[in-house]
Amino acid sequence: MEKFKEILTELESKLNNVNSLNELVEIRNEYLSKKGIVSSLMSKMKELTVEEKKTYGKEVNELKTSVEKLISEKQIKVNEIEQEKRFKEEKIDISLPPISHHVGKENPFYKIIDEIEEIFIGMGYKVEKGPEVDKDHFVFELLNIPKDHPARDMQDTLYIDNETLLRSHTSAVQAHVMQKEGGKPIKIICPGKTYRRDDDDMTHSHQFAQVEGLVIDKNINLGNLKATLELFAKKMFSKDSKIRFRSSYFPFTEPSVEVDVSCFNCHGKGCNICKNSGWIEILGAGMVHPNVLKMNGYNPEVYSGFAFGIGIERVAMLRYGIDDIRRFYQNDIRFIDEFNKKVED
Length: 345
Ligand code: PHE
Fold this sequence. Notes:
The protein has about 350 residues and is of the alpha+beta class. Helices cover about 45% and strands about 20% of the residues. The protein is rod-shaped, with a radius of gyration of 43 Å.
């Protein structure tokens, strides 16, 4: 029986050094498993007399209860120690600076497209899409620009094959929409990319974008075109903007005009934005040529229409005071951020 006391004192001192669950499990196995110390002491019963069994049995059971008690008490302590350890490991240092993520923002190029769309949607226009890779037939032929026409020189582009090319203007969409609508009235705009042989410099790029506009109905006249573009200029640039028409030439419009907007910076006095003329050229337009109406299934005796093509980058450059067209395509985050400040503040 003295031995039992020793066993308990030894267990106590062992438990004093235990700091982790693993260590405790080992000790429990050593004492309480099937082949452990307590079991082997119990199995000694069968060697004893009935009389001896009585006292030995009692003592050994008490030993078992004490061992279990000591171990489960220690278990509570070890759980606390382990929890403490975990808390320390998982502790978050709230004084650390945050990891900053740069949130992508909208390129001013797309902001202008949105604004232009808003303005025309407000006037009842529908926004159409057209293919960037298109057929000669739609880009030139159906717009009154046959194969040998000199106007093709100004719109040389990249060819996929003899008949397939990257569109040199969004005017191709005019033909697509007229063919699709099959003689019904039309009131659409179509923003999109265009490609043209050009010098790449501060104001020119071989890839740029336009918004095409096309209105076809009965009794459409040049006055409607002027009123429409004047409203556009007022909404896009300034309330007191004026526009002026200068006669021009496009094979698919007759008459054709270049459209200038009064300089929103100097209001006509002359400055570096308008090159001292008081006017800034922003687009080409005109009345849809009767040949174009005919070729695309509209009777020019009944229907008339106007069309215009706005250079998107040009409008964005004027509007935001951007000096180099290439900035739109470089995706320099610092440049893009400049145009999103208001949203952030
Ligand atoms: N497509 C012409 C261009 O690219 C612009 C334009 C469109 C002119 C519609 C008249 C009518 O220059």
